[in-house]
Amino acid sequence: MPTRYTFGGDEHLFVECSDEMSLEAFFKSLSMANGVKESGIKGITEICPANASFQIKFDPDQIKPDDVLKEVRAIEGAAERAEPVIRTRIVEIPVFYNDPWTHETLMRFRERHQEPSGTDLDYATRINGYGDVDDFVAAHSGSPWFVSMVGFVAGLPFMYQMVERQRQIQVPKYLRPRTDTPRLTVGHGGCFGCIYSVRGAGGYQMFGITPMPIFDPTQTTSYLRDFMVFFRPGDIVKFKPIDRDAYDQAVEDVDKGRFSPPVREVSFDLREFQKDITGYNTRLEGMINGH
Amino acid sequence: MAIKVLHHGLATTVQDLGRPGYFHLGIPLGGAMDRYAMRAANLLVGNDEGAAGLEAVFLGPKLEFTEDATVAVTGADMPVKVDGVEQPGWTAFAVRAGQTLTFDFLKSGARIYIAVAGGIDVPLALGSRSTYPIGALGGYKGRPLAAGDELPVGAANGSGEGRSVAEPLRRLPAAPVALRVLPGLYWDRLSDEAKRSFFADEWKVAPEADRMGYRFRGGTKLSFVDREQPFGAGSDPSNIVDSCYPYGSIQVPGGTEPIILHRDAVSGGGYFMLGTVISADMDLIGQMQPHTPTRFVEVTMDEALAARAEENDRLEALRTSLR
Fold first, then answer.
1. Which residue in A10, A12, A153 is closest to B26 by CB distance?
2. Which of A14, A223, B7, B258 has a CA 20 to 30 Å removed from the CA of A285?
3. Which segments in chain B show pLDDT lower than 50?
4. What is the ipTM of this complex?
Protein backbone atom coordinates (compact mmCIF):
# COMPACT_ATOMS: atom_id res chain seq x y z
CA MET A 1 0.00 0.00 0.00
CA PRO A 2 1.15 3.58 -0.61
CA THR A 3 2.32 5.56 2.42
CA ARG A 4 -0.64 7.24 4.08
CA TYR A 5 -0.46 10.74 5.58
CA THR A 6 -3.04 12.00 8.04
CA PHE A 7 -3.16 14.74 10.67
CA GLY A 8 -3.60 14.08 14.39
CA GLY A 9 -5.32 17.36 15.23
CA ASP A 10 -3.47 20.61 14.49
CA GLU A 11 -0.18 19.52 16.13
CA HIS A 12 0.61 16.04 14.73
CA LEU A 13 1.30 14.47 11.37
CA PHE A 14 0.87 10.69 11.33
CA VAL A 15 2.61 8.70 8.61
CA GLU A 16 1.62 5.07 8.06
CA CYS A 17 4.07 3.21 5.79
CA SER A 18 2.00 0.01 5.90
CA ASP A 19 -1.10 -1.20 7.73
CA GLU A 20 0.53 -4.61 8.23
CA MET A 21 3.73 -5.37 10.08
CA SER A 22 6.86 -6.38 8.20
CA LEU A 23 10.57 -5.64 8.42
CA GLU A 24 10.30 -3.68 5.14
CA ALA A 25 7.62 -1.40 6.64
CA PHE A 26 9.67 -0.98 9.80
CA PHE A 27 12.77 -0.05 7.79
CA LYS A 28 10.90 2.43 5.66
CA SER A 29 9.30 4.15 8.65
CA LEU A 30 12.59 4.28 10.59
CA SER A 31 14.42 5.57 7.53
CA MET A 32 11.78 8.27 6.94
CA ALA A 33 11.74 9.24 10.62
CA ASN A 34 15.53 9.57 10.54
CA GLY A 35 15.30 11.58 7.32
CA VAL A 36 12.86 14.01 8.93
CA LYS A 37 15.15 14.35 11.93
CA GLU A 38 18.17 15.11 9.75
CA SER A 39 16.25 17.61 7.62
CA GLY A 40 15.83 19.90 10.63
CA ILE A 41 12.46 21.21 9.41
CA LYS A 42 11.61 24.33 11.42
CA GLY A 43 8.77 23.88 13.88
CA ILE A 44 9.02 20.08 14.25
CA THR A 45 9.36 19.37 17.96
CA GLU A 46 9.17 15.55 18.25
CA ILE A 47 9.62 12.55 15.96
CA CYS A 48 8.32 9.21 17.24
CA PRO A 49 9.11 6.10 15.19
CA ALA A 50 6.72 3.15 15.59
CA ASN A 51 6.53 -0.35 14.12
CA ALA A 52 5.26 0.42 10.63
CA SER A 53 4.47 4.11 11.02
CA PHE A 54 5.77 7.22 12.71
CA GLN A 55 4.44 10.45 14.13
CA ILE A 56 5.65 14.02 14.05
CA LYS A 57 4.66 16.71 16.53
CA PHE A 58 4.93 20.27 15.26
CA ASP A 59 4.16 23.78 16.42
CA PRO A 60 1.50 25.20 14.09
CA ASP A 61 2.45 28.71 15.25
CA GLN A 62 5.80 28.16 13.51
CA ILE A 63 4.89 26.05 10.48
CA LYS A 64 1.58 25.45 8.68
CA PRO A 65 0.34 21.84 8.77
CA ASP A 66 0.26 21.73 4.95
CA ASP A 67 3.89 22.81 4.81
CA VAL A 68 4.91 20.04 7.24
CA LEU A 69 3.08 17.59 4.99
CA LYS A 70 4.82 18.91 1.87
CA GLU A 71 8.29 18.74 3.43
CA VAL A 72 7.82 15.24 4.85
CA ARG A 73 6.40 13.91 1.57
CA ALA A 74 9.52 15.19 -0.18
CA ILE A 75 11.60 12.97 2.14
CA GLU A 76 9.64 9.81 1.28
CA GLY A 77 11.30 9.32 -2.12
CA ALA A 78 14.79 9.58 -0.68
CA ALA A 79 13.90 7.16 2.10
CA GLU A 80 12.66 4.62 -0.45
CA ARG A 81 15.88 4.88 -2.45
CA ALA A 82 18.08 4.65 0.67
CA GLU A 83 20.06 1.46 1.18
CA PRO A 84 18.22 -0.71 3.72
CA VAL A 85 21.26 -0.79 5.97
CA ILE A 86 21.48 0.53 9.51
CA ARG A 87 24.29 0.85 12.01
CA THR A 88 22.93 -0.38 15.30
CA ARG A 89 23.67 -2.44 18.42
CA ILE A 90 23.04 -6.05 19.29
CA VAL A 91 22.46 -6.76 22.97
CA GLU A 92 22.06 -10.02 24.87
CA ILE A 93 19.29 -10.00 27.47
CA PRO A 94 19.25 -12.78 30.11
CA VAL A 95 15.76 -14.22 30.71
CA PHE A 96 14.61 -16.47 33.55
CA TYR A 97 11.70 -18.20 31.76
CA ASN A 98 8.83 -19.67 33.80
CA ASP A 99 9.93 -17.67 36.87
CA PRO A 100 7.97 -17.60 40.16
CA TRP A 101 7.00 -13.88 39.97
CA THR A 102 5.25 -13.86 36.61
CA HIS A 103 3.81 -17.28 37.56
CA GLU A 104 2.28 -15.82 40.73
CA THR A 105 0.87 -12.91 38.74
CA LEU A 106 -0.61 -15.00 35.94
CA MET A 107 -2.29 -17.28 38.49
CA ARG A 108 -3.81 -14.21 40.16
CA PHE A 109 -5.39 -13.06 36.86
CA ARG A 110 -6.29 -16.51 35.53
CA GLU A 111 -9.97 -15.72 34.96
CA ARG A 112 -8.92 -13.06 32.43
CA HIS A 113 -7.05 -15.62 30.33
CA GLN A 114 -8.11 -17.68 27.30
CA GLU A 115 -7.02 -20.93 29.01
CA PRO A 116 -7.39 -20.65 32.78
CA SER A 117 -6.25 -24.27 33.32
CA GLY A 118 -2.64 -23.76 32.18
CA THR A 119 0.05 -21.08 32.18
CA ASP A 120 0.74 -18.40 29.56
CA LEU A 121 3.73 -20.47 28.39
CA ASP A 122 1.57 -23.62 28.07
CA TYR A 123 -0.94 -21.68 26.00
CA ALA A 124 1.65 -20.04 23.71
CA THR A 125 3.41 -23.40 23.26
CA ARG A 126 0.21 -25.12 22.17
CA ILE A 127 -1.22 -22.51 19.82
CA ASN A 128 2.16 -22.03 18.12
CA GLY A 129 2.48 -25.78 17.52
CA TYR A 130 5.47 -26.60 19.74
CA GLY A 131 5.79 -29.99 21.47
CA ASP A 132 6.58 -28.68 24.94
CA VAL A 133 7.52 -25.50 26.78
CA ASP A 134 11.24 -26.19 26.36
CA ASP A 135 10.82 -26.23 22.57
CA PHE A 136 8.89 -22.99 22.75
CA VAL A 137 11.56 -21.32 24.91
CA ALA A 138 14.21 -22.57 22.47
CA ALA A 139 12.32 -20.87 19.61
CA HIS A 140 11.76 -17.66 21.61
CA SER A 141 15.43 -17.40 22.56
CA GLY A 142 16.77 -18.97 19.37
CA SER A 143 16.53 -16.00 17.03
CA PRO A 144 17.19 -12.28 17.41
CA TRP A 145 14.48 -9.60 17.65
CA PHE A 146 14.33 -6.05 16.29
CA VAL A 147 13.29 -3.26 18.65
CA SER A 148 10.71 -1.78 16.30
CA MET A 149 9.31 0.82 18.72
CA VAL A 150 10.09 2.21 22.17
CA GLY A 151 7.11 3.49 24.09
CA PHE A 152 3.68 2.86 25.56
CA VAL A 153 5.28 3.76 28.88
CA ALA A 154 8.81 4.91 29.69
CA GLY A 155 11.46 2.91 27.85
CA LEU A 156 9.36 -0.15 26.98
CA PRO A 157 10.64 -1.92 23.82
CA PHE A 158 8.29 -3.53 21.29
CA MET A 159 10.23 -6.31 19.57
CA TYR A 160 9.70 -8.01 16.22
CA GLN A 161 11.07 -11.51 15.77
CA MET A 162 13.65 -11.79 12.97
CA VAL A 163 12.37 -14.99 11.33
CA GLU A 164 10.17 -15.87 8.34
CA ARG A 165 6.58 -14.79 8.93
CA GLN A 166 5.31 -18.40 9.16
CA ARG A 167 7.77 -19.06 12.02
CA GLN A 168 6.84 -15.97 14.02
CA ILE A 169 5.40 -16.50 17.46
CA GLN A 170 1.88 -15.09 17.69
CA VAL A 171 -0.44 -15.01 20.70
CA PRO A 172 -3.54 -12.96 21.46
CA LYS A 173 -3.46 -10.55 24.40
CA TYR A 174 -5.31 -11.44 27.61
CA LEU A 175 -9.11 -11.36 27.22
CA ARG A 176 -9.13 -8.47 29.73
CA PRO A 177 -5.93 -6.64 30.67
CA ARG A 178 -4.33 -7.35 34.05
CA THR A 179 -4.04 -4.54 36.56
CA ASP A 180 -0.56 -5.75 37.52
CA THR A 181 2.57 -7.01 35.76
CA PRO A 182 5.94 -7.48 37.48
CA ARG A 183 8.63 -5.02 36.42
CA LEU A 184 10.95 -6.52 33.73
CA THR A 185 8.45 -9.17 32.61
CA VAL A 186 9.17 -10.53 29.15
CA GLY A 187 5.81 -10.55 27.40
CA HIS A 188 4.19 -11.18 24.04
CA GLY A 189 1.03 -9.95 22.31
CA GLY A 190 0.06 -10.35 18.65
CA CYS A 191 3.37 -10.71 16.81
CA PHE A 192 5.26 -8.41 19.20
CA GLY A 193 7.45 -9.20 22.17
CA CYS A 194 8.05 -6.63 24.91
CA ILE A 195 9.83 -6.07 28.20
CA TYR A 196 7.74 -4.22 30.79
CA SER A 197 10.04 -1.40 31.89
CA VAL A 198 7.97 -0.61 35.00
CA ARG A 199 5.42 -2.47 37.10
CA GLY A 200 1.85 -1.85 36.01
CA ALA A 201 -1.17 -2.83 33.95
CA GLY A 202 -0.67 -5.03 30.90
CA GLY A 203 -2.35 -7.40 28.49
CA TYR A 204 0.57 -9.34 26.98
CA GLN A 205 1.15 -13.03 27.79
CA MET A 206 3.97 -13.43 30.33
CA PHE A 207 6.87 -15.82 29.60
CA GLY A 208 9.61 -14.86 32.05
CA ILE A 209 11.58 -12.07 33.65
CA THR A 210 14.95 -10.42 33.08
CA PRO A 211 17.23 -9.27 35.91
CA MET A 212 18.42 -6.38 33.73
CA PRO A 213 16.74 -2.99 34.43
CA ILE A 214 15.96 -1.10 31.21
CA PHE A 215 14.60 2.14 32.73
CA ASP A 216 16.04 3.88 35.79
CA PRO A 217 14.81 7.40 36.60
CA THR A 218 17.39 7.63 39.41
CA GLN A 219 20.19 6.90 36.90
CA THR A 220 22.10 4.89 39.49
CA THR A 221 22.24 1.61 37.51
CA SER A 222 25.81 1.47 36.17
CA TYR A 223 24.93 1.30 32.46
CA LEU A 224 22.02 3.82 32.75
CA ARG A 225 24.02 6.69 34.26
CA ASP A 226 24.28 8.59 30.97
CA PHE A 227 20.62 8.15 30.12
CA MET A 228 17.72 6.57 32.01
CA VAL A 229 16.29 4.63 29.01
CA PHE A 230 18.27 1.66 27.66
CA PHE A 231 16.57 0.87 24.34
CA ARG A 232 16.48 2.75 21.03
CA PRO A 233 14.43 1.85 17.94
CA GLY A 234 16.59 -0.33 15.69
CA ASP A 235 18.39 -2.18 18.49
CA ILE A 236 18.70 -5.94 17.99
CA VAL A 237 17.99 -8.17 20.99
CA LYS A 238 18.97 -11.76 21.63
CA PHE A 239 17.47 -13.52 24.66
CA LYS A 240 19.60 -15.91 26.70
CA PRO A 241 17.76 -18.39 28.95
CA ILE A 242 19.13 -18.45 32.50
CA ASP A 243 18.22 -20.43 35.62
CA ARG A 244 17.37 -19.23 39.14
CA ASP A 245 20.98 -19.16 40.34
CA ALA A 246 22.13 -17.11 37.35
CA TYR A 247 19.14 -14.81 37.83
CA ASP A 248 19.93 -14.21 41.51
CA GLN A 249 23.58 -13.62 40.65
CA ALA A 250 22.65 -11.08 37.95
CA VAL A 251 20.29 -9.22 40.33
CA GLU A 252 23.13 -8.98 42.85
CA ASP A 253 25.53 -7.80 40.14
CA VAL A 254 23.07 -5.10 39.08
CA ASP A 255 22.72 -3.94 42.71
CA LYS A 256 26.49 -3.78 43.17
CA GLY A 257 27.03 -1.93 39.89
CA ARG A 258 28.92 -4.86 38.33
CA PHE A 259 26.41 -5.88 35.69
CA SER A 260 27.10 -4.75 32.16
CA PRO A 261 24.95 -6.11 29.34
CA PRO A 262 26.89 -7.62 26.43
CA VAL A 263 26.50 -5.06 23.63
CA ARG A 264 28.21 -4.91 20.22
CA GLU A 265 27.98 -2.39 17.39
CA VAL A 266 26.72 -4.05 14.21
CA SER A 267 25.67 -3.12 10.70
CA PHE A 268 22.39 -4.69 9.57
CA ASP A 269 21.61 -5.15 5.88
CA LEU A 270 17.99 -6.08 5.20
CA ARG A 271 18.69 -7.54 1.73
CA GLU A 272 21.52 -9.77 2.95
CA PHE A 273 19.34 -10.85 5.85
CA GLN A 274 16.50 -11.86 3.54
CA LYS A 275 18.78 -13.94 1.31
CA ASP A 276 19.71 -16.25 4.20
CA ILE A 277 17.87 -15.53 7.42
CA THR A 278 19.25 -18.42 9.46
CA GLY A 279 22.84 -17.85 8.35
CA TYR A 280 22.60 -14.10 8.93
CA ASN A 281 21.20 -14.60 12.45
CA THR A 282 23.99 -17.04 13.27
CA ARG A 283 26.56 -14.42 12.26
CA LEU A 284 24.77 -11.77 14.36
CA GLU A 285 24.80 -14.06 17.39
CA GLY A 286 28.47 -14.74 16.86
CA MET A 287 29.15 -11.04 17.21
CA ILE A 288 27.80 -11.00 20.77
CA ASN A 289 30.38 -13.57 21.63
CA GLY A 290 33.10 -11.48 20.01
CA HIS A 291 33.48 -13.45 16.77
CA MET B 1 11.35 28.60 52.74
CA ALA B 2 9.18 25.56 52.52
CA ILE B 3 5.60 24.41 52.38
CA LYS B 4 4.50 21.59 54.66
CA VAL B 5 1.85 19.27 53.29
CA LEU B 6 -0.67 18.65 56.11
CA HIS B 7 -3.12 16.83 53.82
CA HIS B 8 -2.64 15.87 50.20
CA GLY B 9 -6.24 16.26 48.99
CA LEU B 10 -7.16 13.56 46.47
CA ALA B 11 -4.24 13.61 44.03
CA THR B 12 -1.97 16.65 44.15
CA THR B 13 1.14 16.77 42.01
CA VAL B 14 3.93 19.20 41.16
CA GLN B 15 3.47 20.32 37.54
CA ASP B 16 4.88 22.88 35.14
CA LEU B 17 4.45 23.19 31.36
CA GLY B 18 5.89 19.74 30.75
CA ARG B 19 8.80 17.73 29.45
CA PRO B 20 8.88 17.84 25.63
CA GLY B 21 11.32 15.74 23.63
CA TYR B 22 11.04 12.23 25.09
CA PHE B 23 7.72 10.91 23.74
CA HIS B 24 9.68 8.72 21.27
CA LEU B 25 10.90 6.80 24.34
CA GLY B 26 7.48 6.59 25.96
CA ILE B 27 7.98 9.50 28.37
CA PRO B 28 5.04 11.87 27.87
CA LEU B 29 4.90 15.66 27.88
CA GLY B 30 3.12 15.76 31.24
CA GLY B 31 2.65 19.17 32.83
CA ALA B 32 -0.52 20.99 33.81
CA MET B 33 -3.71 19.55 32.28
CA ASP B 34 -5.03 23.14 32.06
CA ARG B 35 -1.94 24.96 30.84
CA TYR B 36 -3.70 28.33 30.59
CA ALA B 37 -4.68 28.26 34.27
CA MET B 38 -1.15 27.22 35.26
CA ARG B 39 0.35 30.10 33.26
CA ALA B 40 -2.13 32.55 34.79
CA ALA B 41 -1.32 31.43 38.36
CA ASN B 42 2.40 31.86 37.73
CA LEU B 43 2.02 35.29 36.09
CA LEU B 44 -0.09 36.49 39.03
CA VAL B 45 2.69 35.82 41.55
CA GLY B 46 5.46 37.17 39.30
CA ASN B 47 6.87 33.79 38.20
CA ASP B 48 7.90 32.67 34.75
CA GLU B 49 4.93 30.97 33.08
CA GLY B 50 6.82 27.69 33.18
CA ALA B 51 7.58 27.70 36.91
CA ALA B 52 6.42 24.66 38.86
CA GLY B 53 3.22 24.84 40.89
CA LEU B 54 0.72 22.37 42.28
CA GLU B 55 -2.16 20.74 40.43
CA ALA B 56 -4.93 19.35 42.65
CA VAL B 57 -7.93 17.46 41.31
CA PHE B 58 -11.45 17.56 42.88
CA LEU B 59 -10.15 18.20 46.46
CA GLY B 60 -7.68 20.82 47.58
CA PRO B 61 -4.66 20.04 49.78
CA LYS B 62 -3.99 21.54 53.20
CA LEU B 63 -0.67 23.40 53.22
CA GLU B 64 1.28 25.16 55.98
CA PHE B 65 3.74 27.92 55.06
CA THR B 66 6.99 28.27 57.06
CA GLU B 67 7.66 31.78 55.72
CA ASP B 68 5.74 34.69 54.16
CA ALA B 69 4.70 34.01 50.59
CA THR B 70 2.62 35.32 47.70
CA VAL B 71 0.16 32.75 46.37
CA ALA B 72 -2.46 32.54 43.59
CA VAL B 73 -5.06 29.86 42.87
CA THR B 74 -6.60 29.51 39.39
CA GLY B 75 -8.51 26.92 37.38
CA ALA B 76 -11.53 25.24 38.94
CA ASP B 77 -13.92 27.18 41.18
CA MET B 78 -12.89 25.95 44.64
CA PRO B 79 -12.87 28.57 47.42
CA VAL B 80 -9.43 29.02 48.99
CA LYS B 81 -8.87 30.13 52.60
CA VAL B 82 -5.93 31.39 54.63
CA ASP B 83 -6.39 30.47 58.30
CA GLY B 84 -10.09 30.18 57.56
CA VAL B 85 -10.48 33.54 55.78
CA GLU B 86 -11.64 33.22 52.17
CA GLN B 87 -9.40 34.67 49.45
CA PRO B 88 -10.41 35.54 45.90
CA GLY B 89 -9.62 33.10 43.08
CA TRP B 90 -7.50 34.14 40.05
CA THR B 91 -5.90 36.77 42.36
CA ALA B 92 -2.52 37.02 44.12
CA PHE B 93 -2.74 37.16 47.92
CA ALA B 94 -0.35 37.08 50.88
CA VAL B 95 0.20 34.14 53.22
CA ARG B 96 2.20 34.81 56.40
CA ALA B 97 4.67 32.46 58.06
CA GLY B 98 2.79 29.86 60.10
CA GLN B 99 -0.50 30.29 58.24
CA THR B 100 -2.38 27.42 56.62
CA LEU B 101 -3.97 27.26 53.19
CA THR B 102 -7.16 25.19 52.90
CA PHE B 103 -9.93 24.72 50.36
CA ASP B 104 -13.71 24.35 50.42
CA PHE B 105 -15.57 21.94 48.20
CA LEU B 106 -15.34 22.16 44.43
CA LYS B 107 -18.10 24.26 42.82
CA SER B 108 -17.24 23.84 39.15
CA GLY B 109 -14.35 22.61 37.00
CA ALA B 110 -12.03 19.85 38.16
CA ARG B 111 -8.46 21.06 38.75
CA ILE B 112 -6.98 23.96 40.66
CA TYR B 113 -3.51 25.40 40.14
CA ILE B 114 -1.58 26.78 43.10
CA ALA B 115 1.36 29.02 42.27
CA VAL B 116 3.76 30.35 44.91
CA ALA B 117 6.12 33.24 44.17
CA GLY B 118 9.50 31.63 43.48
CA GLY B 119 7.96 28.36 42.25
CA ILE B 120 8.12 24.88 43.75
CA ASP B 121 11.85 24.20 43.64
CA VAL B 122 12.09 20.42 43.23
CA PRO B 123 15.00 19.22 41.03
CA LEU B 124 14.62 19.27 37.25
CA ALA B 125 14.23 15.83 35.66
CA LEU B 126 14.81 15.76 31.87
CA GLY B 127 14.30 19.52 31.84
CA SER B 128 11.02 19.66 33.77
CA ARG B 129 9.67 19.53 37.32
CA SER B 130 6.43 17.80 36.25
CA THR B 131 5.50 14.60 38.06
CA TYR B 132 5.30 11.42 35.95
CA PRO B 133 4.19 8.84 38.55
CA ILE B 134 4.30 5.74 36.30
CA GLY B 135 7.97 6.37 35.65
CA ALA B 136 8.63 7.63 39.22
CA LEU B 137 10.12 10.66 37.47
CA GLY B 138 10.18 14.37 38.33
CA GLY B 139 8.01 16.28 40.79
CA TYR B 140 8.38 15.51 44.48
CA LYS B 141 10.20 12.14 44.59
CA GLY B 142 8.42 11.08 41.42
CA ARG B 143 5.02 10.73 43.08
CA PRO B 144 1.86 12.61 44.13
CA LEU B 145 2.18 14.53 47.42
CA ALA B 146 1.53 12.92 50.80
CA ALA B 147 1.03 14.35 54.29
CA GLY B 148 4.40 15.15 55.85
CA ASP B 149 6.12 16.18 52.62
CA GLU B 150 8.03 19.47 52.68
CA LEU B 151 8.16 21.34 49.40
CA PRO B 152 11.11 23.67 48.76
CA VAL B 153 10.25 27.07 47.25
CA GLY B 154 12.58 29.15 45.07
CA ALA B 155 13.47 32.83 45.42
CA ALA B 156 10.59 35.16 44.54
CA ASN B 157 10.90 37.85 41.85
CA GLY B 158 8.95 40.39 43.90
CA SER B 159 5.43 40.56 45.20
CA GLY B 160 2.34 40.73 43.03
CA GLU B 161 -0.25 40.81 45.81
CA GLY B 162 -3.62 42.14 44.74
CA ARG B 163 -3.09 41.44 41.03
CA SER B 164 -6.10 39.75 39.50
CA VAL B 165 -7.15 38.16 36.20
CA ALA B 166 -10.16 40.00 34.74
CA GLU B 167 -13.36 37.93 34.55
CA PRO B 168 -13.47 37.61 30.74
CA LEU B 169 -9.93 36.17 30.79
CA ARG B 170 -10.83 33.35 33.17
CA ARG B 171 -11.66 30.16 31.30
CA LEU B 172 -13.79 27.24 32.49
CA PRO B 173 -15.94 24.93 30.36
CA ALA B 174 -19.69 25.45 30.27
CA ALA B 175 -21.94 22.39 30.57
CA PRO B 176 -22.71 20.60 28.34
CA VAL B 177 -19.20 20.71 26.96
CA ALA B 178 -18.49 20.79 23.24
CA LEU B 179 -15.09 19.39 22.27
CA ARG B 180 -13.92 20.13 18.74
CA VAL B 181 -12.46 17.15 16.88
CA LEU B 182 -10.52 16.89 13.64
CA PRO B 183 -11.40 13.48 12.12
CA GLY B 184 -8.36 11.57 10.84
CA LEU B 185 -5.81 8.87 11.71
CA TYR B 186 -7.92 5.66 11.35
CA TRP B 187 -11.27 7.48 10.88
CA ASP B 188 -12.03 5.42 7.78
CA ARG B 189 -12.13 2.22 9.82
CA LEU B 190 -15.59 3.39 10.99
CA SER B 191 -18.83 2.55 9.19
CA ASP B 192 -20.85 5.47 7.81
CA GLU B 193 -23.40 4.97 10.58
CA ALA B 194 -20.64 5.15 13.26
CA LYS B 195 -19.17 8.29 11.66
CA ARG B 196 -22.59 9.91 12.01
CA SER B 197 -23.51 8.70 15.51
CA PHE B 198 -20.16 9.59 17.08
CA PHE B 199 -20.83 13.28 16.45
CA ALA B 200 -24.61 13.12 16.87
CA ASP B 201 -24.72 11.34 20.24
CA GLU B 202 -24.40 12.86 23.69
CA TRP B 203 -21.58 11.24 25.69
CA LYS B 204 -20.75 11.54 29.39
CA VAL B 205 -17.36 11.63 31.11
CA ALA B 206 -16.80 8.23 32.78
CA PRO B 207 -15.34 7.87 36.29
CA GLU B 208 -12.11 6.63 34.65
CA ALA B 209 -10.81 10.09 33.78
CA ASP B 210 -7.30 11.06 34.78
CA ARG B 211 -4.12 12.69 33.57
CA MET B 212 -3.46 9.82 31.19
CA GLY B 213 -6.83 9.86 29.49
CA TYR B 214 -10.49 10.76 29.71
CA ARG B 215 -12.99 8.00 29.02
CA PHE B 216 -16.56 8.64 27.79
CA ARG B 217 -19.76 6.59 27.92
CA GLY B 218 -23.34 6.74 26.80
CA GLY B 219 -23.10 6.96 23.02
CA THR B 220 -23.95 4.28 20.48
CA LYS B 221 -21.42 1.47 20.05
CA LEU B 222 -19.34 2.21 16.95
CA SER B 223 -19.28 -0.33 14.12
CA PHE B 224 -16.44 -0.88 11.68
CA VAL B 225 -15.94 -1.42 7.98
CA ASP B 226 -15.37 -5.13 7.40
CA ARG B 227 -11.83 -6.16 6.56
CA GLU B 228 -9.36 -8.99 6.97
CA GLN B 229 -7.13 -7.79 9.81
CA PRO B 230 -3.59 -6.95 8.63
CA PHE B 231 -0.70 -9.12 9.86
CA GLY B 232 0.39 -8.07 13.35
CA ALA B 233 -2.73 -6.03 14.09
CA GLY B 234 -4.64 -8.39 16.37
CA SER B 235 -8.05 -9.91 15.78
CA ASP B 236 -10.47 -7.25 17.05
CA PRO B 237 -11.73 -4.84 14.36
CA SER B 238 -10.63 -1.92 16.60
CA ASN B 239 -7.01 -3.22 16.59
CA ILE B 240 -4.19 -1.84 14.44
CA VAL B 241 -0.48 -2.65 14.24
CA ASP B 242 0.75 -0.79 17.32
CA SER B 243 1.43 2.82 16.38
CA CYS B 244 2.13 6.14 18.10
CA TYR B 245 -0.75 7.98 19.73
CA PRO B 246 -1.06 11.77 19.32
CA TYR B 247 -1.95 13.84 22.41
CA GLY B 248 -5.69 14.42 22.22
CA SER B 249 -6.26 11.42 19.97
CA ILE B 250 -9.49 9.50 20.52
CA GLN B 251 -9.26 5.70 20.64
CA VAL B 252 -12.30 3.48 21.03
CA PRO B 253 -11.29 -0.04 22.15
CA GLY B 254 -13.92 -2.49 20.93
CA GLY B 255 -15.92 0.45 19.58
CA THR B 256 -17.60 1.08 22.95
CA GLU B 257 -15.98 3.81 25.06
CA PRO B 258 -13.96 6.66 23.50
CA ILE B 259 -10.77 7.59 25.39
CA ILE B 260 -9.06 10.95 24.82
CA LEU B 261 -5.36 10.74 25.65
CA HIS B 262 -4.12 13.69 27.69
CA ARG B 263 -0.83 15.05 29.09
CA ASP B 264 0.41 11.78 30.68
CA ALA B 265 -0.58 9.76 27.58
CA VAL B 266 0.81 6.35 26.78
CA SER B 267 2.86 7.02 23.66
CA GLY B 268 1.48 4.21 21.54
CA GLY B 269 -0.49 1.02 21.34
CA GLY B 270 -2.72 -1.17 19.24
CA TYR B 271 -6.10 0.61 19.19
CA PHE B 272 -7.40 2.57 16.19
CA MET B 273 -8.03 6.29 16.67
CA LEU B 274 -10.84 8.14 14.91
CA GLY B 275 -9.43 11.66 15.23
CA THR B 276 -7.95 14.17 17.60
CA VAL B 277 -9.28 16.91 19.89
CA ILE B 278 -7.86 20.21 18.65
CA SER B 279 -5.13 21.91 20.67
CA ALA B 280 -7.40 24.84 21.62
CA ASP B 281 -9.73 22.52 23.57
CA MET B 282 -7.20 20.36 25.44
CA ASP B 283 -7.15 22.62 28.52
CA LEU B 284 -10.94 22.35 28.82
CA ILE B 285 -10.78 18.56 29.20
CA GLY B 286 -8.67 19.01 32.32
CA GLN B 287 -11.60 20.89 33.90
CA MET B 288 -14.28 18.27 33.17
CA GLN B 289 -15.83 16.26 35.99
CA PRO B 290 -17.18 12.71 35.68
CA HIS B 291 -20.75 12.60 34.27
CA THR B 292 -20.32 15.91 32.39
CA PRO B 293 -22.48 15.71 29.24
CA THR B 294 -20.26 16.10 26.20
CA ARG B 295 -20.72 16.53 22.46
CA PHE B 296 -17.96 16.03 19.93
CA VAL B 297 -18.05 18.66 17.20
CA GLU B 298 -16.47 17.98 13.82
CA VAL B 299 -14.13 20.73 12.57
CA THR B 300 -11.74 21.23 9.65
CA MET B 301 -8.02 22.00 9.95
CA ASP B 302 -8.72 25.66 9.11
CA GLU B 303 -11.23 25.86 11.94
CA ALA B 304 -8.76 24.17 14.29
CA LEU B 305 -6.08 26.72 13.42
CA ALA B 306 -8.51 29.63 13.83
CA ALA B 307 -9.47 28.31 17.30
CA ARG B 308 -5.80 28.02 18.19
CA ALA B 309 -5.20 31.62 17.09
CA GLU B 310 -8.09 32.71 19.32
CA GLU B 311 -6.53 30.93 22.31
CA ASN B 312 -3.15 32.51 21.53
CA ASP B 313 -4.85 35.92 21.52
CA ARG B 314 -6.44 35.20 24.89
CA LEU B 315 -3.04 34.25 26.32
CA GLU B 316 -1.48 37.44 24.91
CA ALA B 317 -4.26 39.50 26.50
CA LEU B 318 -3.60 37.74 29.81
CA ARG B 319 0.12 38.50 29.61
CA THR B 320 -0.54 42.13 28.72
CA SER B 321 -3.03 42.58 31.54
CA LEU B 322 -0.60 41.23 34.14
CA ARG B 323 2.51 42.97 32.86
1. A153
2. A223
3. none
4. 0.96
CATH homologous superfamily of A87-288: Cyclophilin-like (2.40.100.10)
Residue of B nearest to A65 (CA): B301
Strand locations in B264-314 (E)? 268-271, 273-277, 293-298
**Do B208 and B114 lie in a common domain?**
no
| B272, part of any domain | yes
Q: What pLDDT digit, counting tens, does each position of A142-167 carry?
A: 999 999 999 999 999 999 999 999 99
CATH topology of domain A4-81: Gyrase A; domain 2 (3.30.1360)
* Shortest Cα–Cα distance, B56 to chain A (Å): 23
Q: Are residues B262 and B202 in the same domain?
A: yes
Domain membership of residue B9 as a residue range: 2-169
Distance of CA B287 to the CA centre of its chain: 7
Gap from A190 CA to chain B (nearest CA, Å): 6
- How many domains is chain B built from? 2
Closest CA–CA distance from residue B89 to any residue of chain A (Å): 31
Q: Answer yes or no: are the C-beta atoms of B181 and B276 closer than 8 Å.
A: yes
Tell which residue, B309, B297, B305, has the closest CA to residue A68: B305
For A32-41, b/e burial (b = at least 16 CB within 10 A) is: bbbbbeeeeb
Phi, psi of B2 (to 5 degrees): -150, 165
